[in-house]
Structure formats: structure tokens, C-alpha cells
User: Fold this.
Amino acid sequence: SAEEAAEKGIEKVEAMCREMNIPKYLEDVGVDKAQVPAMAITALQDGVGATNPRPTTVEECEQVYYKCFRE
Assistant:
């Protein structure tokens, strides 16, 4: 099924990241949760934000960042 194929793809990407020692969480690269609000604002001001397929709020962007922490 498409869902099984997606799961296998995710597993493969995670395995490749482990093999290449790519950090998994933001705190692994020295980011603190206190930095998230400023990071979200910066992300939305970046030119990439203009090409996002749907409008995104600062709060939504913050939630994405917060999900990139262990807890």
C-alpha cells in the first residue's frame, strides 16, 4: 500500500541520517527552546516563506520547531 511504502521511505531516510551522523533533534545542534520564537519570525521573513504553498502563522511555525525537540 501507499502507507507501507511511505513508512519504508521514512525508515530508509532515518537509517541514512544515522549512518551519516546527522543530528536528529534541534538540541543536538545547540538550539534551545527559548530561541524558537525568534527562529519562527526569521523563518517567515525568509524568502522561502513567500513560496510556501499556504500561508503560515508564526504560531504554526513555532509548533513545527517545537516538534523538533526530544520533549
